[in-house]
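Quick illustration, no need to memorize.
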Amino acid sequence: MRFILRIIAAGLLAIGLALGPAVAASASSGVTVTWVTLYGSHTQTYSCSGTQTYSGWDVAYVSNGCGGRVWLHAQESGGGAAYCVNPGAITYGIGGYEQILVSGNTAACDANVQLSPGWVDSPVLPTALVGTTAICVDGQPYNLYYDGQPFAGYWWLFQIVNKCNTRIWIHGNANGSGNSYCISPGATYNWTNSNGNSWNGGNGGEQFVVSGNQAPCSAG
């Protein structure tokens, strides 16, 4: 039954989570949750405190408009597997959680997690590789500008392991414009094998941004 419910939840997400971004855009306070079951879906916004369940239904989408973390639990009683949603973040494409708990902890679930992006001076004929550091801060952009010899200008992201619990977006240009490429939480990006170097005309990107979306890229 649980397996069937997850399939139905995935189907609802596939056809209806244009629902996800739409709810997230309008949420300013409270936590908005879409619950799913064999019979359909139900969306409700709750206050920023306490625990909530919906008659054994599963959580399919969360928009956390609260200042604290939201915890999802596999059991209505609060037991079982748990999943943490950052303050201000959204998540969907999930299943198997039947309770939400709004926490007073205002830190992101992945606060201070370190990233180690590597940059090259040219996407065509790179002559140097530079490693830098970054941390998982939702909405934070990163790029590298180098004014030394033999190259001056913005460098291109060569590799990164996404240790954040949110998506990372790579943008073709250092100002955030141009083509974009999505890296799921936990996934690895390597310019040398990313879609056969095909995205952005084979050039990769000059900027990456830690997003506030915790869903895998495959969830849409």
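The first strand starts at residue 31 and ends at 37.
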